[in-house]
Amino acid sequence: MTHLKEGDPAPDFKGTDQDGKEVALSDFRGRKLVLYFYPKDNTSGCTAEAVNLRDNYETLKKHGLAVLGVSTDDEKSHRKFIEKYDLPFPLIADKDKKIVNLYGVWGPKKFMGREYEGTHRVTFVIDEEGMIMKIIDKVKTKDHAKQILEAIEG
Question: Active-site residue numbers?
């Protein structure tokens, strides 16, 4: 899966969010960032993860964490997902797969015996200087905020 390791500099990226606004890693300099990659808007696991982050968003903010989601869905799909679940954080539309490839989270997956290419569910916690503090690759979708907080406090 990802070639990146904790302690590595986070690869710099630029992408567009649900409103077509450009978002870059450098926008988060000086604060910690939860950069979470997920397979698809409005699927059960991705919805559970997004809702858990939404429900714990104030707690994450109190710990100095910004939250940014990335999937290969388009801006329109992201906007609908955000509106449907009242998500308080932006989602990047990585349609050309530049960011998922940069972070090494795009690759072969298996579902019900079928193999296909897709985004692996991985979260990177990036520090104020742009270094990877933690990589969470066994995401518990319904308890992800707790995993993140334990990772940064651990």
Answer: 46
